[in-house]
Amino acid sequence: MVKVSAIIQDPYFDQPSWLSKAEYRENVVLSKLSSIDDAVLFFTLLCGYNDVDVARDPTDVLNELIATDEVVIRGGITFEDKNKVILPSCCCGLENWRDVLEAVISKEGVWLGHNPFPSVEYIDNTVRIWSDDFSGVMRKDVTEKEIRKMYYIEYSRDDLIKKLQSIETDLLDFYKCSFKKALWMVDDYHKEMLFLKYCKWFNLDVK
């Protein structure tokens, strides 16, 4: 079954000493099924990638995050089908996840990272997510051998739009079900203010 997921990647920064210790993993999916460890790795990457010093009191760290209007965070959308996976590539950020949704709605190209260059192809009401730049738009030097190694995951365009729209729910559920619990030592006011800023960073609609 084809699916899409919101993920973060490479959270290899110093973890805050006041959070539970989590084992590092290269890719972490964010959803209502995420664990406390997943939330710790998200917070670690959020702070590390945005130069927020975690070797301080939790309130001081949150105050700096709450005062930050924009963040970048390594990750994005993962596309999966059985034993095929296409991950976000270098210089792709989860903060831009909605760009992917809007591109599919408009039948346009979208940035999914480089080296490799995942790309999008539209055929009638079908969308193919390619593992690399199959058309040679971004990679002028692509060889026939490299093209033969490329693969794609195919979606119904309407179904892909629905799946991408559900990323918003996944990110909201992640905060409420996992991230909020990981920050048990933080008072409710700071958690609520951080939630509002989280929604701004990731372009989420707070209903």
Structure overview:
- The chain has 207 residues and is an alpha+beta fold.
- Helix content is 38%, strand content 17%.
- The strands form 2 sheets. It has a 4-stranded antiparallel sheet with strand order 2-1-3-4, with helices on one face. The protein has a 3-stranded antiparallel sheet with strand order 5-6-7.
- It is elongated.
Topology, pairings included?
Blueprint: E1 2-9, E2 27-29, H1 36-49, H2 58-66, E3 75-81, E4 84-86, H3 97-106, E5 119-123, E6 126-130, H4 144-149, E7 152-156, H5 157-182, H6 188-201
Antiparallel strand pairs: 1-2, 1-3, 3-4, 5-6, 6-7
| Helix percentage | 25-40%
SSE order, one letter for each helix or strand: EEHHEEHEEHEHH
Query: How would you state the average pLDDT, rounded?
Result: 96
Uncertain segments: none
Round the Cα radius of gyration to an integer and report it.
18 Å
Number of helices: 6
Strand neighbour order, sheet with most strands:
2-1-3-4
The secondary-structure class comes to alpha+beta
Largest sheet: 4 strands, antiparallel
Shape: elongated
> Which percent band covers the strand fraction?
15-25%
Strand runs, count? 7
What's the end-to-end separation, in Å? 30 Å
